[in-house]
């Protein structure tokens, strides 16, 4: 089952999650041989995050959903490296999806990134040979699942 997780409260100061209580998280270095593809989904809209998490879980992905980039960086720093990182470009206050992509790749250069947004990204943001995939909202969840599979295949050795 898909799960919305939060880092331990003592990891770093951060904004409080929707439930107000931290969920347990395990350090996972990468995909197990033959195991499901791991997806870290960062979406500030709880309804969208939950719907995408459940849909992707039903498609056989192992999904961790978070509301902000700061929490994602805590998990990435703790060794929870997904096969594919999916992040909304506009995450409200704090870091945005572009910032998260850059910081995630600085720590884990092989992680594949899909950015999603309700608006087209600024052309200046895509200058300089960015490697992220982009999917504009609204989209069918099966389109996202397909992009995740393609990105994960590109990451596979």
UniProtKB/TrEMBL annotation:
What lineage does the source organism belong to? Bacteria, Pseudomonadati, Pseudomonadota, Alphaproteobacteria, Acetobacterales
Q: Which residues carry this modification: 4-aspartylphosphate?
A: 88
Where do the Response regulatory domain residues begin and end? Answer: 38-152
Region described as Disordered:
1-32
What keywords is this UniProt entry annotated with?
A: Phosphoprotein
Protein name, per record: Response regulatory domain-containing protein
What organism is recorded for this protein? Roseicella frigidaeris
Listed Pro residues bias regions:
1-11
Transferase: is it a keyword of this entry? no
């Amino acid at each position: 089952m898909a799960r919305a997780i939060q880092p331990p409260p003592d990891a770093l100061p951060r904004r409080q999650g929707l439930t107000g209580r931290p969920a347990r998280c395990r350090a996972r270095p990468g995909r197990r041989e033959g195991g499901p593809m791991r997806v870290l989904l960062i979406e500030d809209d709880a309804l969208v995050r939950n719907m995408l998490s459940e849909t992707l879980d039903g498609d056989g992905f192992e999904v961790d959903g978070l509301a902000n980039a700061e929490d994602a960086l805590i998990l990435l720093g703790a060794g929870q490296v997904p096969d594919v990182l999916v992040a909304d470009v506009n995450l409200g206050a704090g870091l945005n999806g572009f910032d998260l992509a850059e910081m995630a790749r600085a720590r884990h250069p092989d992680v594949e990134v899909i950015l999603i947004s309700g608006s087209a990204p600024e052309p200046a943001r895509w200058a300089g040979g960015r490697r992220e995939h982009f999917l504009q909202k609204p989209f069918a969840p099966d389109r996202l699942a397909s992009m995740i599979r393609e990105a994960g295949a590109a990451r596979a050795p």
